[in-house]
Give the backbone structure.
Amino acid sequence: MLIVLTGIDGSGKTTAARALVESARAEGRSALLLSNHAGRRQLSLLAEKVGFTMPPRVADFIETGVRLFTVLVNHARAGRADSLVVMDRHLHCQLALRESKGLKRGRLLQWLLRMLPAPDLAVHFDVDPRRAHQRVMARGTDKETLADLQAFRDAYRALPELSGFVVVDANGTPDEVLTRLNRLIDAKELTCV
């Protein structure tokens, strides 16, 4: 079973993905976590360190290249796995980032989304941007403005692809979100039997 998780920074995607894989393994099931990061955090930290503001199109070019590479490699890995496969982020994330920055969607990402195997379950973590901002600031590894998080959330909500996702309220604790996610997976497994 292939599961894809999306959401803004601070929505709890990575925390939930790790917990989901750990809980499946604790139950004796095989599970694989695949991360489809774009290097955005590293780029923003590097730009801040050297005092350079990267133009949005340049940042998008680099991030899209990194994300495309990781998604393609991880789909190849997922295709060989006979287990629960959880993908933390996907190409939808890049489409939402582009939308939030006022950049065009382009054709490549949309074409690839049609060509790649569809996930068995696509879940979008929806969270109040203020809550997400608190989480991002608490982890202290990157910086996001509240305005950027709100724009990112709005961009996700504007994606036509989001209609194929199950939207989960991610404002609760990690345990609450994991419980919701496990219920979705159980329901999906029952319909596949």
Remarks:
- The chain has eight helices and five strands.
- The chain has a mean pLDDT of 91.
